[in-house]
Write a structure and sequence with these properties.
Keywords: Aminotransferase, Pyridoxal phosphate, Transferase. The chain folds into two domains: 137 residues, Aspartate Aminotransferase, domain 1, CATH 3.90.1150.10; 224 residues, Type I PLP-dependent aspartate aminotransferase-like (Major domain) (Aspartate Aminotransferase, domain 2). Helices cover 43% and strands 12% of the residues. α4 runs parallel beside α11 and α5 packs across α10. It is an alpha/beta fold and 399 residues long.
Length: 399
């Protein structure tokens, strides 16, 4: 098993003095400040504690939380989800992805993963005994449509895969699928009796396009398995409460796998997740976070220019990451810094850490197609972000 790169880089950065850490997606904006006192007063009481620690949770999670999740989809997207049969509460989005793979595919089955994509997908697929099948996705305004046009195998049958994992909004690129792209994927899935696993954990962070849950697209429908969590949208990665939405028969299988592996989620944390999902002021809070992330994206793209060695063939449309191409910076680094045995992105990431005191992630961990890129996060504290951009924008060495 390969190392979890962004965690390793972040851990190294924390040991170094005066480093601006833009390597790991731990939002500084959560939990919602206006809810903290309510959580402390009402959800972390003696009675709540004793209730939580003296029993196992239901396999699917609490009925109240599942209803709140169903209400989430109806309120935001006009989508009807049955809280009793089509939702399971999980240990974050990561468990939901594992359950989706265990429930929808068999040992050895191919699972399609695009290049680039979140580093965890390929490793999860392989760890669970499935076979990752990677498809290089071009940088374009409609990336999946371009891929279908250029790659006959993918356009025909996902390369024979039983499922395809799609992250929209996406880590690391910030790409968001259009309705036409979802319809295209749905048509391919229907022809090949395949599943579409939609990781939508950045759903509230949409800048340039509206977020579309795959299940809400008619051509996808009940072939969608939707993955979501509280970690990113509420800024609570340590809460470890997520969920999966899928049709009834798959949820029944997922509940069994969940029992075999986990038994149940943390009941005390479910109470906190319920309060956040039901908060009447939460949409206003999301809007403020979204505006801040959009502003930071614009600041970074304006400051990190081709003159400084950055190019933006993949300017994000949502999410909380940036993925600039740093080929031009690599060319202008001192010969002693350039390493023929390392990718462009890995070389530049080391240079930025050692010489600029900014920690970023080499693009290669998200796929070979972006090994000339580095990934930056937008969700840290304001002071760190501003200082990091200032350091990243410094002039390159002459010659």
């Amino acid at each position: 098993m390969s190392e979890y790169a962004s965690k390793a880089i972040s851990a190294r950065a924390k040991l170094l003095p005066d480093v601006c850490n833009l390597s790991i997606g731990e939002p500084e904006f959560g939990p919602p400040e206006h809810l903290v006192d309510r959580v402390l007063a009402d959800d972390l009481t003696r009675a709540a504690l004793l209730d939580a620690v003296n029993r196992y949770e239901h396999s699917a999670g609490s009925a109240e939380l599942r209803q709140a999740i169903a209400d989430w989809y109806q309120r935001r997207y006009g989508m009807i989800v049955d809280p009793d049969t089509e939702i399971i509460v999980t240990h974050g989005g990561v468990e939901a992805i594992a359950l989706a793979l265990l429930s929808a595919t068999d040992d050895g089955d191919p699972v399609a993963i695009t290049d680039p994509s979140y580093m965890l997908y390929e490793r999860s697929v392989a760890t669970l005994g499935r076979t990752p099948v990677s498809f290089r996705r071009p940088a374009a305004d409609c990336e999946f449509q371009a891929l279908a046009g250029d790659d006959a195998s993918f356009a025909r049958d996902f390369g024979g895969a039983r499922a395809v994992i799609v992250n929209s909004p996406e880590n690391p690129t910030g790409y968001m699928l259009t309705a036409d792209e979802w319809a295209l994927l749905g048509d391919i899935a229907a022809r090949n009796d395949a599943w579409i696993i939609h990781d939508e954990v950045y759903d509230t962070m949409a800048f340039d396009r509206p977020h579309l849950p795959a299940r809400g697209v008619e051509a996808v429908g009940d072939r969608a398995i939707m993955i979501n969590s509280c970690s990113k949208k509420f800024g609570t990665p340590g809460l470890r409460i997520g969920w999966m939405v899928a049709r009834r028969d798959l949820i029944e299988v997922a509940k069994k796998a969940h029992d075999y592996l986990y038994l149940g989620v943390n009941i005390l944390f479910e109470r906190i997740a319920l309060r956040m999902l039901q908060d009447p002021a939460i949409e206003q809070w999301f809007a403020g976070n979204n505006a801040r992330l959009r502003e930071r994206r614009n600041i970074a793209i304006s400051a990190l220019t081709p003159e400084q060695g950055y190019s933006w063939n993949r300017a994000p449309k949502g999410g909380m990451f940036l993925l600039p191409d740093v080929t031009a910076m690599h060319r202008r680094l001192p010969a002693a810094v350039r390493d023929a045995d390392r990718s462009v992105g890995a070389t530049v990431a080391s240079y930025l850490l050692d010489e600029r005191q900014v920690a970023v992630v080499p693009g290669e961990v998200y796929g070979p197609s972006v090994d000339q890129h580095v990934r930056l996060v937008l969700c840290g504290d304001e002071k760190t972000f501003r200082l990091a951009v200032e350091r990243l924008a410094r002039p390159l060495p002459a010659g």
